[in-house]
Design brief:
By secondary structure, this protein is α/β, with parallel strands linked by helices. The protein has helices spanning 13-24, 36-47, 63-76, 102-130, 153-172, 200-212; strands at residues 4-7, 28-33, 53-57, 82-85, 133-138, 178-183, 220-222, 225-226. Helix 4 links the parallel strand 4 and strand 5. The chain is globular. It binds NADP nicotinamide-adenine-dinucleotide phosphate.
C-alpha cells in the first residue's frame, strides 16, 4: 500500500528535499507550506520529476490551519503514515539570553514547538487507526543540552523543548507501532544557514531513514546515529 507522508515547511530547504526523497521511495507526499504560491510551485517542481506530490496550505502556528489540513486528510485518505515536523524559524541570531527579546522567543516557540506538538496531537489519532506512524521532528544540535553554548536563545530553547516533545510522545506511544524521534540534519546550506557545509541531500538523509527504515523511538539522531541530548 502506498504510504502517505505529510511534510511541513516543505517549499524550500531541507523540507523540500525530504519530500523529494520520500516521494522517490514511492510515497504520496502532502507537501505543505504557509505560502500558497511558493508551496504550489515547489509541488509542481516535484510533479515535473514524475513524483506523486500534492500541495496543501499549512501555517503550523495556526490552529485553524491545522484543523483544515486534518479534516481534508480524513476526507481524502484512509491513513497518514508519516509526519515530518520540519518547518522552523531562527529569528534571534546575534542575541544572548541576557539580551533576548521575549517576543521573538514566543514567536519561535509557536513555530518550532507548539506547531509540531499540535500536529502530533491532530495526526496521532489517525495513525492509531492503522497502528502505524513515523513522526520525525527536525531538531538541531543547538537544542542539545550537553552541547549548549550561547547565542540565538529562542532557537536553542525551542529545539530543546522540541526534544522534550519527542521524549514525552515516544514514552506515551510505547507499545504502539508509532515512533517519534528528533534529528539534527547537520549544518546544511539553506536560506536559514547560507554558510552551511552540507547539501540538502545529506541534510535530509537521517529524517528519511527515520521515516522509512528505523524502528527506534524517543531518541535523538544525527547521521543515522544516536546524538547526545
Ligand atoms: P529554511 O530554508 O529557512 O526553511 C524553513 C521552512 O520552514 C520554510 O519552508 C518556511 O516557509 C517554513 N516555515 C517557517 N515558519 C512556518 C510556519 N509558521 N508554517 C509553515 N512553514 C513555516 O530552513 P532549513 O535549513 O531548510 O530548515 C529546516 C529545518 O531544519 C528547521 O526546523 C531548522 O531549524 C532545521 N535545521 C536546519 C539546519 C541548517 O543548517 N540549515 C541545522 C539544524 C536544524 P517560508 O518559505 O514561507 O518562510
Amino acid at each position: 500500500m502506498q504510504k502517505i507522508a505529510v511534510v511541513t515547511g516543505a517549499n524550500r530547504g531541507i523540507g523540500f528535499e525530504i519530500s523529494r526523497q520520500l516521494a522517490h521511495l514511492g510515497m504520496k507526499i502532502i507537501l505543505t507550506a504557509r505560502d500558497e504560491k511558493k508551496g504550489r510551485e515547489a509541488a509542481r517542481r516535484l510533479q515535473n520529476e514524475g513524483l506523486d506530490v500534492v500541495f496543501y496550505l499549512l501555517d503550523v502556528t495556526k490552529e485553524e490551519s491545522i484543523g483544515r489540513l486534518v479534516e481534508w486528510l480524513e476526507q481524502t485518505f484512509t491513513r497518514v503514515d508519516i509526519l515530518v515536523n520540519n518547518a522552523g524559524i531562527d529569528i534571534d541570531r546575534g542575541y544572548t539570553a541576557l539580551q533576548s527579546d521575549i517576543s521573538k522567543i514566543k514567536e519561535t516557540m509557536e513555530t518550532n514547538v507548539y506547531g509540531p506538538l499540535r500536529l502530533c496531537k491532530a495526526l496521532v489519532p489517525i495513525m492509531r487507526k492503522s497502528n502505524f506512524g513515523r513522526i520525525v521532528n527536525v531538531s538541531s544540535e543547538s537544542g542539545s543540552l550537553n552541547g549548549m553554548t550561547t547565542g540565538h536563545p529562542g532557537y536553542r530553547i525551542s529545539k530543546t523543548a522540541l526534544n522534550v516533545v519527542t521524549k514525552l510522545l515516544g514514552n506515551e506511544l510505547l507499545g504502539t507501532n508509532i515512533t517519534v524521534n528528533s534529528m539534527h540534519p547537520g549544518r546544511v546550506r539553506t536560506d536559514m544557514n547560507p554558510n552551511g557545509q552540507r547539501s540538502v541531500k545529506e541534510g535530509a538523509d537521517t529524517a528519511v531513514w527515520l521515516a522509512t527504515e528505523s524502528t527506534a523511538t524517543g531518541k535523538f539522531f544525527s547521521d543515522r546515529k544516536e546524538y547526545d541530548w
